[in-house]
Amino acid sequence: MSISIAIVEDEKNYNNALKKVIDYQTDMKVIAQFFDGNAALKNLSDLSPDVVMMDIQLQDMLGIDIIGKLKKEMSATQFIMCTSFENDEMIFNSLKAGAMGYLIKGESMDKILSSIRDVYDGGAPMSFSIARRVLTHFEKKTIEVKDFEELTKRETEIVELLSQGLLYKEIADKIFVSIDTVKKHVGNIYRKLQVNNKVEAINKFNHFKN
């Protein structure tokens, strides 16, 4: 059975080049081309293609927003971002919105075709540089979680109080210990969180909480 594909791309030459190469394959066919976001937003859900090749930065809107609006009613459709943007915010906003693939323009047509087949079969194809960024992001998250798991209940309480702006003496009074004990706890917190000062510890704590 042929994989049905829609292309949402305002760069006409690239849009047409994709269509030409895809239509040359025996197992896939382009059923629609859109050159702006509004047209895609109005018509995509009626077409229900198997795969949508989506540009991120269209002239009239973001491709991420289109996916966000359509993903619920197009649950069977897989979206692949095909873009020149490699910044973390764009990558993670795309994945949060529901994109299952993220390719950088400039990838070979072979890579694009294999990615369409891959996403259709349940995969999550990404350009190598994007996959590295995603893995690095989750490695950092894992390290942070591990760091916080090492904190004792008392140390976690002290970081919380530091983040509220309390001084060492105020913390000591609040939890009924000496200032020296608070300082000792703070030293342990810095070591476990791999930070060098109070500001870094608070920032890491707030980032983890969020």
UniProtKB/TrEMBL annotation:
Domain called Response regulatory: residue spans: 4-120
Keywords: DNA-binding, Phosphoprotein
One Pfam family from the record: GerE
InterPro entries found in the cross-reference section: CheY-like_superfamily, NreC/VraR/RcsB-like_REC, Sig_transdc_resp-reg_C-effctor, Sig_transdc_resp-reg_receiver, Tscrpt_reg_LuxR_C, WalR-like
Domain HTH luxR-type residues, every copy: 144-209
Residue list for modification 4-aspartylphosphate: D55
Listed name of the protein: Response regulator transcription factor
